[in-house]
Specification:
The protein has nine helices and three strands. It has a three-stranded antiparallel β-sheet. Helix 4 packs across helix 6 and helix 5 packs antiparallel against helix 8.
Length: 241
Amino acid sequence: MTDREPAPDFGGELLSTTVKRLLLDRIVRGHYEPGERIVELKLARELGTSQSPVREALRDLAAIGVVTIHPRRGARVRLPTGKELGDVSVVRSEIDALAARLAVEHLTDDLLDSLESLIGDMIARLDGQDFTGVTEADARFHQLIASASGNHALERVFDQLAPFARTFITLTLPDVDVRGIVEEHRTILSALRDRHADRAAHAARTHQLNVSALLQAHYRRTAADAITGEDRDTVLRMGSQ
């Protein structure tokens, strides 16, 4: 982020909601990295607000696992484990399946065209290695389906889970081949276009389970590489003695 970034528009929504959205965007874009401290007073001064909406936004982010808050030490961006990300995708598999099933009754041609456009956007951004853009388009794709479900309880659960997954999946995308996962959105859209509720639910569920498996496999490889690296460093140190 540069100093030229425009100040956020606080009109029309709660300050804490806007601050939360801003923080999520900054974390996704790498402005705040895992482990980095978010200074409440500094951010409040930057945004021209009191510390209260910043504190509330950080508490909301802590509730969904994006940051951790320590007494007298403030908030820090946290890096979840592969299991945590995988667990979120497993829960999302059922939420997204139900959303797709319910949405079939409320689909419009305009909505279907929007979903198709978002798939194209995901592919284009993936080709351009714009991983933040991939997750933004992905989040919008699934959010449109959740909204089309007409079930407000489902939407609330989706809204709680989506930021966590979106925030940290962005960090792993450069190291993971996700083209196959991105292409799975076409299967979901095809079932929705056919107004086939069972097939749409199955496609949505399978997609999230595949995301879970991919993330957990990636984190297992990362952990194994780290151990191998530590062993190699130990051997080198012993050899130099």
